[in-house]
Amino acid sequence: MTFFSKRPASVADSSNRLPVFSHLPADVCYMDSACQTPRIRLVVDAEQEYVLHHNACGGRVRYKWGKWVDERVQGARTEILQLCGKSEKEYAVAFTLNTTYGINLVLHQLPVDPYDRIVTSTIEHNSVFLPSMTWAQRNGKERLVLPRSEDGSLEYKQSQLQKTIVLVNNASNIDGRTLPNADTLADDVHAHGGILLLDAAQSCGHDPAALRGVDFDAAFGSGHKMYGPSVGFIVIRRSLLRSLQPFFLGGGTVESVEHDSFGLFTGADEHARLEPGLQNWSGIIGLREAAAWLRKQHIAGSEHALAQALFDRVSAIPAVTVVNGKPGSILSLYVDGIDAHRLALYLDEKNVMCRSGHFCCHYELQHNRHLPPLLRASIGLHNTMADVDRFVTTLETIVRAI
Q1: pTM, entire model
Q2: Which residues, 6+ apart, have CB-to-CB distance to 327 below 8 Å?
Q3: Region 381-390: what's the mean pLDDT?
């Protein structure tokens, strides 16, 4: 199934168009959705609508422009909750700079006394791995780095969850591994007086349904991996939100201020506790469109065949070592005798765009597995089997030339 027209087309549904490709040759192959997905036309139009016609501050003004902004920002919160399958009564949505910012914002404002340790895993992005490290160091608490199985499940003992903050991803940006025991993990964490925080940045654009059955306490994501703008969001249990001990304060976070005290927002507006200062209104409005659009897509079925073909065909190329244990939306590899950064440049010369490096997962890739910089090809809803063919054929040509 083809979800997009890469080139401008006369179609009634404008969401089919990816403006970034409109000026590029038809053979351009973009396979870096794990880093950033292209924005759909609906998102670009929504952002422009704000900038060109309603350029007002949300939550602060009473004139018509502001009312238009407030309605759409609230709509964005609703769409994110529906994407995650959570209720507004139990959860709030706050918008942030990005996923990393959101994780740090919540983690370092948690009350310390209720928790004895923090648990993370070996395959985490630096946005998880480093904050877990600094939280433990600053608070004099234990930190455990646990393994993930081949299918992505977190391997743990019940004793390790006693009064514990568990901070892990539910989809790896190394190889796309998910967290299939997330629901059981949440139950076990809560049974021992702990909380579960999920880095959902990688999963939201590929399998947003993965969050719907999980009783998490907070999840973090960003529109730039969801065919939307680069704006982060936090989906947080309201009881946890109210327990935070805020130190990052300013305009918009408080309802009242006295000489030596202040009052934070409560009730329907308590998300403001995590939204200091002026927000990225155009980005939030664009995110509303991306989330609404994503809820209507059947992503897993579209990506499965591409992922399988990509995995099978690349694994068969001599001199190529595939890091993945199984097919996924992300494929990481290295080639004997050629630096991954140079390989990415060679591919780019043939209009094939991929990521090279350690993908902000230095602990697992450099320290644990002692791997060189890798090449990563990641698929999205805009990709087709023709893209897989082009990537594999180009890679084979380069490898044969070495």
Answers
A1: 0.94
A2: 304, 307, 308, 310, 311, 312
A3: 94
